[in-house]
Amino acid sequence: MTNKTAQWMERSRRKRADRLTALEDKLEHRMPARYARRRPRRVLAGAGAVTLGLLWVDAAVSWVVAPSDTAVIVNLVVLGVLLAIGLPLATQLVALTRGLTAKRERELDERQLTARLRAFATAHRASTVVIAAVLLTTMLADRDGRDSQIPGAALFLILFALLVTHIFLPLIVAAWQLTDPPAEDDEQA
After folding, report:
1. DSSP for 54-111, written as a single string
2. What pLDDT is stored for residue 109 in this prediction?
3. Contacts by 99-108 with C-beta closer than 8 Å and gap 24+?
4. Whole-angstrom Cα distance, residue 151 to residue 63?
5. Which tens digit of pLDDT belongs to each residue from 128-158?
């Protein structure tokens, strides 16, 4: 690596670190004070889990009623609700966790790394349970062998729900497990 390349990479890292610091400061001021306590954070994380559950309900409904116009209407309504509620909710969760699940390891301190690893481990265990449940449900529901007919839309929605769960479950778990910030002392020694 040449000297110019190394200098460019170092400048790029510094600029990214400066942008992240500015973003964290902005998030610190924008986050409502109500999220400083554990219960509102857990309510937000619970809302995220319910939103993920809605994807799974959509897949189940599609399995039962597809192919039909009812399945299409249900899918469009659920996707509309997910766009209207899920995106702002995910944005709030990212802001609440200060990007804990999305940042690079070198951008986190030891406390944040520990919280991130704990969140990923818990989410991994939960994802394993979800995958096992999907596998078991598919095996039990599909007993007709070659004559079995699982709607393609249902399979797509199951895989889509699995992907979204894999992506957002660590974020939800991180918000759920987030500890209260240390109390600020009025007297500084």
Report:
1. HHHHHHHHHHHH-SSHHHHHHHHHHHHHIIIIIHHHHHHHHHHHTTTTTS-GGGS-HH
2. 81
3. 99/20, 100/174, 101/170, 101/171, 101/174, 103/20, 107/17, 107/20
4. 6
5. 999 999 889 888 877 776 667 778 888 889 9
Which residues have a Cβ under 8 Å from the Cβ of 55 and sit 6 or more positions away? Answer: 78, 82, 157, 160, 161, 164, 165
Q: How far apart are CA 10 and CA 184, in angstroms?
A: 35
For residue 118, give every residue at least 6 positions away whose Cβ sits within 8 Å of its Cβ, in sequence order, or none.
177
- The two tokens of residue 113 are 């790394």
Confidence check: pLDDT of 60 > 70: yes
Kindly list the domain boundaries of the chain, sorted by start residue: 37-177
Average the pLDDT over 84-93 and give the result. 89
Cβ atoms of 160 and 55 within 8 Å: the answer is: yes
Residue 189 has pLDDT above 50, yes or no: no
* Distance in angstroms (rounded) separating the CA atoms of residues 38 and 167: 23
Q: Which residue has the tokens 């797509």?
A: 156
d(CA 189, CA 186): 10
What is the rounded CA–CA span in Å between residue 26 and residue 5? 31
